[in-house]
Amino acid sequence: MTDGQAFRYDGKRVVVVGGATGMGAAATRTAAGLGAEVVVLDRAPVDYPVAQFLQVDLGDRKQIDATLDELDGPVDALFSAAGMAAGPAVMRVNFIGHRHIIERMVAEKTLAAGSAICLISSVAGLGWQNHLPTLVEFLATPDFESADSWVSAHEGTNSYMFSKQVINAYVAREAYPLLSKGVRINAICPGPTDTPLAQANSWLGFDKQYREATGTTPLLAEQMGDVMVFLNSPAASGISGVSLLVDSGHVMASIGGSWEAGRPVIEFLMTQNAI
């Protein structure tokens, strides 16, 4: 297409898990502005207009199933945006619940051929390839309960960092089996972004020196939402299995050596990020 229609969502139905605030809300607004009918699933209420809102706690598998039972008709794009920084439910909310939603929607063909999925990972998930055997072992758990039990049995895995490494591994590994069903899957890996979650956890200091040197401002939720909407659009039909860095070039400049000040922390994330 050469008229820009591949970027639009006219006639498409999308589901945003975690669309009440932050990057999920930004993706919701962008998709709706491009013509989508948007259904939001979230624990928190939505304070702006959407086609449908369904309340759900991703830490509770029964709630997830009851919510999915209320979804009628096909879904063209799924945005898995809900997340938390820490706490007893961090793996359930950041990944296990999302995987359960994806697998049920694919199995029931709610997400059918031609649809797409986008999750939110993080630069905190860098270096996942160094832990692939452990990640594959976890991903081999067949359902919500067994995944939760695996985490309980493996010290240090109920963490934000592990959840983001898992997302990157999951996206890479699911690229082939999902595409064989006509479904694409990708993720974004945001750098520190000015959202309520980042502010509450003081994450914006991570790239402050880089931003000052490049004259850039903190990344915004809208920038992340726009990239997610692109990845789930027909315009990105050739992209799958990718966890895309959205960090103003901080990580690549550090790896490439042009931003030497960033090398130590990026090398730590890439090579020494032990699970």
CATH architectural designation:
3-Layer(aba) Sandwich
User: In the CATH hierarchy, what is the superfamily?
Assistant: NAD(P)-binding Rossmann-like Domain
CATH class: Alpha Beta
Query: Overall mean pLDDT score?
Result: 93
Query: How large is the count of helical segments?
Result: 11
How many angstroms separate the termini? 45 Å
What does the largest sheet look like?
7 strands, parallel
Class by SSE composition: alpha/beta
Shape: globular
Q: How much is the radius of gyration in Å?
A: 18 Å
For this structure, the CATH topology is Rossmann fold
Give the fraction of residues assigned to helices.
Answer: 40-55%
Number of strands: 9
Strand order of the largest sheet: 3-2-1-4-5-6-9
Q: What is the chain-wise order of helices and strands?
A: EHEEHEHEHHHEEHHEHEHH
Describe what this molecule looks like in 3D:
The mean pLDDT is 93. The strands form 2 sheets. This protein has a 7-stranded parallel beta sheet, with helices on both faces. Strands 7-8 form a two-stranded parallel sheet. The protein has helices at residues 22-33, 61-69, 90-107, 132-139, 144-153, 160-179, 196-200, 208-214, 221-231, 250-256, 263-271; strands at 13-17, 37-42, 52-55, 75-80, 111-120, 184-190, 193-194, 219-220, 243-246. It is an alpha/beta fold. Helix 1 packs across helix 9 (221-231). The protein has one domain (5-271): NAD(P)-binding Rossmann-like Domain (Rossmann fold, 3-Layer(aba) Sandwich). The protein is built from 11 helices and 9 strands.
